[in-house]
Write a structure and sequence with these properties.
This protein is α/β, with parallel strands linked by helices and 82 residues long. It has one domain (4-80). It has two helices and three strands.
């Protein structure tokens, strides 16, 4: 069985996102994923939400073993976006 972590990158600072990805790596998870929305999906009013693809690229630089992708899609499926 393989495990991954949805980092849910909305309404939180950058340091928390990096912490979540490193947590997934420390636990031996196979991957971590986020979304590609420009605003929070839940809660009321505006909140911190980093642009999806740039965020995932930066998070990939913060870890060595975890596969970083978006919305539980395989990395090859992202090729049509970049």
């Amino acid at each position: 069985m393989r495990f991954g972590l949805d980092i849910a990158q909305q309404r939180m600072p950058w340091d928390e996102l990096v912490s979540r990805v490193r947590f997934a790596e420390d636990l031996g998870f196979e991957g971590a994923w986020g979304f590609d929305h420009f605003q929070p999906m839940y809660g009321s009013g505006p909140g911190e939400t980093f642009e999806g693809m740039t965020t995932l690229a930066a998070l990939a630089g913060a870890t060595a073993q975890v596969c970083i992708t978006r919305d539980r899609q395989p990395p090859a499926a992202i090729g049509d976006v970049v």
